[in-house]
Each structure stands twice: as structure tokens, then as C-alpha cells.
Amino acid sequence: MAGFVAAFRTSIQENTIENMLDTMAYRGRDYRHHLRDGALEMGYLGMDLGYAFDRKEICQREKTTVLLTGYVNNVDEVRAYAEKCGVAEASSLTPAEAIAVLYEIEGTEVASVLKGGYVVLIYNKETGALIVFRDRFAVQPVYYYQTKDGGIVFSSETKAFLALPSFEKKFNKDALVPYLIFQSPTLEETFFQGVFPFAPATVMTVTGEEEVGVQLTKQQYWDVAFAPQEMELEEASKAINALVERSIAEKTKYFAHPEAIGQSLSGGVDSSYLASRIRPKETFTVGYHDQEFSEIDNARDLSKIIGATHYSEIVDSEKTFSELSTIAYLGDQPFANLSAVPMFYLSKQISEHTHAVFSGEGSDEFFGGYFEYTEPKYMNVYKLLPTSLRRAIGRRMLKSTKDFKGKNFMIKGMPTEDWYIGQAKIFHEAEARHIVHRSYRYAPRVQELLAPYFEQVRNLSDIQKKQYLDFHVWMVNDIALKADRMNIGHGVQLVTPLLDEDLLDFARTLPDELKIQGTKVKIAFRHAALNYLPEEWATRKKKGYVVPLKNWLKEPKYSAIITEMLTGELAAQFFDVSQLKALIEENLSGKRAQHRKIWTVYMFLLWYQEYFVKR
User: Fold this and answer.
1) How confident is the model at residue 224 (pLDDT cuts 50, 70, 90)?
2) SS3 31
3) What are the respective helix, strand and coil percentages of the chain, to the nearest 5?
4) In what order do the strands lie in the sheet with 116-124?
5) I need a surface site. Which of 172, 224, 281, 304 has the fewest CB within 10 A?
């Protein structure tokens, strides 16, 4: 639980920092820090969670000032490293103090020593430079905006810039088409012109004089490097279980009452595995009246087995549509992942009982948990055709603005780097460009956005290529954003034992056959889970908080709401409304499910209302 704002080498009005913090006050309701030090002014939002280092996020020394936003999980390891570097009484250092002293000894190399979810600011008083770095997994969000007077402002959320007097709010037209494709913000510039996301595992050094403005130097300090090794399934399972045990211990050691941390349950193997290992006192889930989509019964059954008090809540169409504007506002940027809805209500329910829960993020990306990593039925036969022919057919499909059965199969027959864009593909690129007005069609092409990632793994297997891309795009722009915004809005801190650097360091050495076998996914991880779960639970296909939207959009009340929005004046500013109307009609007729596309447009329009119409 944390949020911050920092202004560097820029002139800001009195109370600006506080006003910016106010826009995201939910990120830390219990206390604030406000500090001025030379060319730096910053504010911090915190929440008391019974964590040993609450209220100790700032360290001021003669040479450096440090702000730590978030959590360092390997505190003992960092202290031991500081001791090896000759630091006296290193065992008593807070994480912020350890970062300060290690920076004074080793400079920006300190970034590679830390593990966890954090953003770190270091003000070097001797050189006048500001150093900023972010965790490897994009757990803690951070954005920046360069001011007209040559300075720079950082913030945990983009909405805070609306309270910066010098900020000019302008819509970034290039962001719309990629969003329609990926369902989340994907460009290196946000939907607000001039506001940029800060890449994970990156160190930025900010220098400069008042006359010329700040200069930004960025350097990636880490990347995942797949290096498969031969190993047996049992060997892999034992290693996974041992590393998860260590991760749980590290991530809970400095909580005064770790037994008060609850467990969110989706019914899938990840959260069930954690719950069976940790045995929390309380578990939480949400579900639906429609049993096809709900996993409440599974979560309740497991809770009985482990002796936990279980809380569940039904989410329906009325409840969802009543708070969609709030969800859009919390999202900070346009965001159409349907699972944000149940996560919003899950977090709301959790906040009534506790403010920290274990969650299962990370294992799908680490261990190959997505069905897209498998191949469609008969693809092995289709691939007997020459690559050049399959590529020609696939490219023709990609250029088509129509959607029809078999189209995706022929696209997937191309080489991975020609078609794979990650877990979320809502509109095909040609469709997305065709449905918006001409002035929005000049966004970078998908291949331009993704080519640098595929270049890094050009000699690896198709599974590893997909994992690498998901790690850098899907996990950063979708999973991390959803987990942060939907939980932080209710004051809930996620504890994620499976999102762990040491666990990933092992997972990257797994051979492909211990990840995917035919249509089975996450082979090694599921086998490890058998030590704690019955086979039925360890091998169960999760629903992942799937929302029965396809049914809701056929209810007359909500069909009318959607139709009014997608055919109204606001939609007409961006889209060919006749095409949107055709999508709605096709979805209602049952000829082809178009609910995901409709939802993606609808959530964008709600976001635009919140940030450009209401504010």
C-alpha cells in the first residue's frame, strides 16, 4: 500500500504536492510524508499494515535522500550484502537506509540487489542527480511528465497530474487503436499526451541545469533469460515447493501479524495451492448466479478442508453496471480486462475483514499456464504446408476487416512472431484501424511495438517467445495494472508468493516439456501442487473470474445502456458508429459473440467520460 509524487527541478505552487496526493488518497489513508530537499519536493501516502517498516520509507543522509515506495522482500539478504560491503550495524538497517548506504558505495548497482515490488527515488546531493528505479515485475506503478520549465514530475498514477497546475491535459490519439487490440494501454506514452509509464527493471538518472532542462538517461538493469536444462518432473516439483516455502517466509517475516493475512480464492490451482500451504484463517471469493461461470462452490469446499472462514459474494449485472464508472476511474487508464470487475468486488469484500491477502499472480507467466501456449487441434497437419504459403494466408487474414470461423486458425499457422501478441487480442489490427475515424489510424503498428521483444528471443522456442512477450507486455500492462488499481482502491495489499525473483530464476530453466504437453499447461507447477492438493484440484482448469458478460449484454436493460453509449455523440467522436451498431446487433442475434469487443469500446468511453468530460 503506497503512493507518491515527486517534483524535481521544477517550480510548483504551494500545496501542489498535497493536491496531487489527494487525487489518489486511497493509496495510503493512514499517514503522509512531505519533504523538500534542494531541487526535490516529494510526498508519500502510507497505510499502517503492521509491517515493521511502516512510516520508515524515507532516509535522509548527508549525501543522499531516499524514498522507498512499496516493499523490499529480501530484507535479510540486502542487510547481509551491506555487511559484506563493510557497513557497520547492517543488521538493523531499514530497507530505505540499506538502499542509501549501498548506493553511496556501489551507485546504481544497488538496483540489482533488491527483490520485491517497489519504486525507489535517490537524490544525490553531491551531484544534484535524481535516480529512480522500478521493480522487475511492475508491481509498483510510476509515471513521469516533463514540465515546460525544464523539470520533471513523477507519480504513482496518471490522474495525479490533473492536479498539477502546469499540466496540459491532451488526449493521445495514437493510444486508441493499440488499446482496442490489447484491451489495455500499450504504448510508451499513456492516453495523456506527455505522460509516460516507467518501464520495469529500469534505472533512470535525471540530471541537468535550469537553463537547459533535465536530461534523462535510462538503463535496463535486469531481464529474464530463458536457459532450459534437462531435469526430471519430480526434481522440478521439489524445487518449486522449496522456493515457494522460502518466498512465503520472506514476504511475511516482517508483518507483525502474518496470521491476519487472508487468501483470495479463484478456484484455480494457484490460489488453492497457496491456501493449502498457508492455511489462512479467512478466504474470499466472488461468483455469479450462473454456475457455468462461478467458482464459489469450489472455493467454499477448499475453505472447509483447510479450516478457514470463507466469505463469498454474488456479482450480478445490476451491481456491476452500478459501479462501472468507479472502476473506470480507478483504472486510471482505459482498461477492459473483464476480470477487473470481480477483482473490484473481491477487494471491496476483503477490505471489510482485513487489509492484506495472499494472491496467486505470477505462476501462469513463469510456468506456462496459458492455453495460447498450446497449439490448436490439427495445427500439426496444417504446418506440413510450406511456411511461405502459411505466412501468405495468415497475412491475408490479418488484413481482413471481417471476423469469421477459421480466421484465427490460419493466423496461428504463421511463425509465432508474425501473429502472437499476447493473452488479450480483442480486435484484429485491421478491424481496429477500420472502426475508428481516420485521425486515430496513425498509431504504431503492432509489429513495430512487438518486434523489439521478439528480436531478443529470436533463437528460442515458440513457447519461450510467447512467455517472454507476455512477461513484458501482458504482465506489465494488464495483470500488474489490474492487480494494483482494483485492490489499492479499497486499501488492500496483495502478498504474492508466486511472483518471486528466485522462483522465476528457477522457472526460466525448465524445459518446455515441463511447461506444456499437448493441451495440458503448467505441467511442473501442477505436479508440485499435488503435494498439497488432491489431483482433482491440482489439475482443474481454472475459470479465472470469467464474467458472464455475454449473458448480461442480452438483458434488455443493459443492452439498451450499451447501445445508447456506443451509438451516441461521444462514441461518434472516435468511431464509425454504424460498425459499432452492427457489432451489437450481431452479438444480440447470437450469430457471433462480440461481447468482448463491445465491452472494450464501452470501457474506453466510460474512461473518457471520467477524465475528459466530468473532469
Assistant:
1) very high
2) strand
3) 45, 15, 35
4) 58-60, 64-72, 116-124, 129-134, 202-209, 213-220
5) 304
